Amino acid sequence: MMTDLISIGKGNPYRNWLNSGRLIGISADGLTVKDFQKGLKVISANRKRSGCETIVDIRWAHPSGIEADVEYHIYSDTEVIEWEGRVYNRGKHTVRDIKPFSLFLDGYVYDAGIPHITTVYGGASTSEAYPPPSYRVFEQDGAVELICGREGGRSTETFIPTLIVNDYSTGKGFFLAYEWPCRSIIQMGSRRISSKKMEMHIWAHPGWVMFDLKPGESIYLPRVNIGFFDGDGVSGSNALRRHIKRHILKPVKDGSPLPPVFYNHYFGWGNEFTEKDLKREADIYSELGIEYFVVDAGWFAGNFRKGIGNWDIVDSKKFPEGMESFSRYVEKKGMKFGAWIEIEFAEKDSEWVKKHPDWFYNAGGFQNPGYYSKEFTDRLLKLDDSSVRDKVADWLESWVKRYNIKWIRWDFNNTPLPFWVANEKDQMGKIHIEYGEGLLSLLDEFMQRCPDVHIEACAGGGHRADIGTLRRAHSLWMNDNSHSYNTIRRFQAGLNRVLTANYGNSCFLYGTHERQRVQSISSIRKYGYPLAVLRSRMGGSLGFAEKTWFWTSGIKRYLKKEIERYKSVRHLLMEDYYPLFSPRSIKEFDGWQFHSPDRGEGFFMVFRCESPSPEVNVLLQGWKPGEKYEIINVDTGKKMKVVAGKEIPLYIENLEGVEWFRYRIV
Fold this sequence. Notes:
The chain is of the alpha+beta class and 666 residues long. It contains 16 helices and 35 strands. The protein has 3 domains: 247 residues, alpha-galactosidase from lactobacil brevis (Beta-galactosidase, Chain A, domain 5, Distorted Sandwich); 310 residues, Alpha-Beta Barrel (TIM Barrel), CATH 3.20.20.70; 90 residues, Sandwich (Immunoglobulin-like). The strands form 7 sheets. Strands 2-3-4-5-16-12-11-8-9 form a 9-stranded antiparallel β-sheet. Helix 9 runs parallel beside helix 11.
């Protein structure tokens, strides 16, 4: 059955390895994963095909009374198989200490070398270090273990649960992306048996789950994505990006799948703003071509964070005419209105907790290190309870309609783990896994009810950037560092190795942020912004948070022109991505390339940073061998023709200078 299932990836040595096992598994008291897999039998299988997608539904059964319903999606265009399912106890006895595995495979790979493994760190750290810890590309050979969300329960506190595996000797590889927003473990190992035989194992599962499954109960198996590719690790990155673009990212109804241009008030204004302040910002930003105007935290009574949960009480001092009036004002300016919410948490004294105390978990006596308090003052929404989810979905739909919200910034600032642990007693991981499934279910329901709303995933920055969350989002607030532009450029450089650029949200902030600003306001007014400040954010969605009170007409013309240029190339951000450099110091050049192999066009940027030398040679990737390309300097209009495979010499005169080029095949 499995040989028939994975029909993609022919000629790839990892395909036969993956075909050799059952893929899914469980362990339990007295039952190992391998014994469970040996006892599995197919009791029903249905297959249907539509275009490039084949869907196979299989019901597996084990003599113990455990059954698994698994749905597999096979995509011939991207050579990817996805699967998820449920494990049921259809026996007469309670299954003790069950532990689900979405993927568990031991076996042999033939005619392949030592696997080279690439992954990327998550976005939790806001450090200004260069290169930064967040979104740093991590590579090693042979084996890897990703421990995700262990400390607090959010999926990308350490690594993004994704692997890109390539074999240099055969030029083949595969990627794995695990769709779980909470705690997970991915392990892979290999051991050479002979010159042609490699022992390999891999597994992926929700972490720290071990509870009892009673007769009639079930447990969710989170979705796994495995795709096959030819080439090196960067080729694997682009194979994953193509699959995300074609089959994971769901465009906003009647909207664009391209990275948006948006404004967010918080990093410029924080809690201290008025409607008058925001109207002034809306007036100016609408002139620049901003598409979404987002009111972040602080629109509700009590400010952030003490006011979370006061979702039905708009701060009347900030919006004396109500937020409906301001939303209409934004729309009249030609932009779409957005708002922030942290629906999964509420403060203990908030309106929601007082009205619906049964909707929330208490963390008991656990300390709250995230907000430096002796105990948690917030409460966690019971997303494991379907009746609570239904009521919250109703409220979200009415909230969106009331303010005509077209962008929701869905935040999750604190750690859920203490709330799960405090309420699980001796059933380790039960609330955790039901909460994660409930979150995905609520997001699915919201997208179905409000398909024209852009969802920006956020979790105190990049603490929850797994593919499962992002399948239910249109962009991602990747990190709370919005001021260190060189660092932000490295965030986007790493993020593009495992995600498409629409998930690389950041906000332009320079003169407003005193700690980042190296020029006086009068100097910015006289000389304008350094080119690298804005262009360092053009490897993702383009956001703004800068206050506008000091802008001259010249500054506004410059920003409008840069936004127009960005919009003219943002379709290329969703194509293939190539890092041009891997800097280990700010004294080295940096840069990126985005390339459409189908159109034969692309763009690249080269940043001098603080390199002591103004000269560098650049070798562009993805070009057809022997073909000639025309390159145009975006700033000067100067053109040159280059043959694929030939290095391009560049001279960037100034420190922190940047050169931007577009190209097309001749």
